[in-house]
Write a structure and sequence with these properties.
CATH architecture of the largest domain in chain A: 2-Layer Sandwich
CATH class of the largest domain in chain A: Alpha Beta
Strand content of chain A: 15-25%
CATH superfamily of the largest domain in chain A: GAF domain
Oligomer: homodimer
Largest sheet of chain A: 6 strands, antiparallel
CATH topology of the largest domain in chain A: Beta-Lactamase
Radius of gyration of chain A: 20 Å
Number of strands of chain A: 9
Strand order of the largest sheet of chain A: 6-5-4-9-8-7
Number of helices of chain A: 10
Chain lengths: 265, 265
DNA sequence: ACCGTTTGTCCGAAATATCGGACGTCGGTC
DNA sequence: GACCGACGTCCGATATTTCGGACAAACGGT
């Protein structure tokens, strides 16, 4: 998964950037930030330079500029850098500027707090599933903040709702075939997936268990636009051994929240 | 220090950048993002160009690049741009990477939810006060998400805690004199401010009423490092007519949260 | 329908930011 | 103590990005 990300990146370097060894500072910076986001950890400048194909001297120059602007921060005292506070400010401005997300924050925070389990708000980004908001809940372990990380649609409960409006043929065209293979190598049959979707549409929620992870159950409910199309989902991530009774309660909670978030009502 | 930062920046504009009309793309991008953050609203490209002193053609070029990278988003269909989802991802990575902030998120979310009032987590940035986290609470009005906006220290309750470790003379040197003037023109006497600080230290919290805004009360408690220095505050923003009883309860809540956040205890 | 303003694109020229490589330092290893 | 690799800085040359201005299209008020 991570390996693919890196390989991809280097492939990019070799196709889109090969023509010239020279690139604009801004393009270098974009590559730098994407690299940090993929790695999700403070990283040494020389490593970033190597992995993004940027000359070392250029990277030092850019990092200095960005640190000054608070886009990046030097960490630990060893020579690693990571995102700085400016990113948080700009990110907050973004969240506040998108109506649905602003409302979703309230809902996600509320249900995570009252139920005590990790709650998320998710959408599609291209043909991938994406966690937009994540509120950890009360359990200490598993702080799976995957914000901004893309995941194949079939790997998720929410994914079964988000492609709700497509028929079998459209699904086949839309979701890359390899995305039906789970991280452990198992493959999800397409009819199984379609059947999940059908059931989801009638029931108004989805439950998946042990999909990407053997011990986790996901519960998701659809946020729909006035035309009925699923534009986002709100969901819980809970241990698989959660009682049926508790899960039913969470499903009701999710449905209520999702309903409140659905625009034009 | 940060005030200098701002002054410095503008001095730069007039000294370091004037000589030549030409600037690096990355510097123009930094100016662009700062401008959007200051305006806090989708803005037309031509306006950004004018207000940041960037040539129009350059700004169009850069905006296109940034939109492609999802750093910016075209809004509404009119030609305005604002921050895009990438900023949210990077900002989330930053929040997750800073231990104290990660813990503070949990506390702020929890107390905002249980008490139902707006809760915030604040620090100093140079010689200014800064809201790092803001959780709106249950009231509908006043969604004062001032994340990333700097405010004079004397205008805030938290400010009285954050300069806790300075003596009268140091305070005078540290806080710009003009920062003692409130937005409505009233001036805070320095001894009054010092007296507030003294009381705050003995009581373990601060309360201010009608400081920047006639109808608002702020309650704040200090997060201290092992040496006892106040490194951040956690606070409530409530209507001034909140009952004394309710306020006492909130103060206890704040003190408990602040205690949990204080490192090495 | 007219005209002034704003928007977005395109182009050539030249000022300069990027790049490669050299250099001094620092730490660890044999 | 000599060697090796990594780190961070500096410098000159040139490939390139920025910039100004021109242009067409869209807009909006009269």
């Amino acid at each position: 998964m991570m390996g693919d990300g890196v390989a991809e990146k280097q492939a990019e370097k070799q196709s889109a950037e090969k023509p010239t060894g020279r690139a604009r500072g801004i393009d270098r910076v974009i590559a730098l930030m994407e690299h940090l986001h993929d790695r999700r950890a403070p990283t040494r400048i020389a490593d970033i330079a190597r992995d993004t194909g940027t000359p070392r001297s250029t990277m030092y120059e850019l990092v200095n500029t960005l640190v000054e602007a608070r886009w990046l921060e030097l960490r630990d005292g060893d020579g690693t850098v990571y995102f700085g506070p400016a990113m948080h400010y700009y990110g907050s401005d973004y969240l506040d500027s998108v109506d649905l997300i602003r409302k979703a924050r309230v809902e996600v925070a509320h249900i995570a707090e009252t139920v005590g389990e990790t709650a998320q708000f998710c959408t599609l980004d291209g043909d991938k599933y994406l966690v937009v908001l994540n509120e950890p809940g009360r359990r200490m372990f598993r702080i799976s903040s995957e914000i901004g990380i893309k995941v194949p649609i079939p790997w998720t409960a929410s994914g079964r709702l988000l492609v709700d409006h497509l028929d079998a043929e459209e699904i086949r065209r839309f979701i890359p075939s390899e995305d039906f293979t789970l991280p452990d190598g198992r493959r999800i049959a397409e009819d199984e997936f379609l059947e999940d979707m059908r059931r989801a549409r009638t029931q108004g929620y989805v439950r998946t268990t042990a999909l990407v992870d053997r011990f986790t159950t996901c519960l998701a409910a659809p946020v729909r636009d006035p035309s009925g199309r699923c534009i986002a989902t709100i969901c819980f991530v809970v241990p698989a051994d959660t009682t049926e009774e508790a899960q039913q309660m969470m499903i009701d909670t999710l449905k209520a929240s999702a309903e409140r978030l659905s625009p034009g009502r």
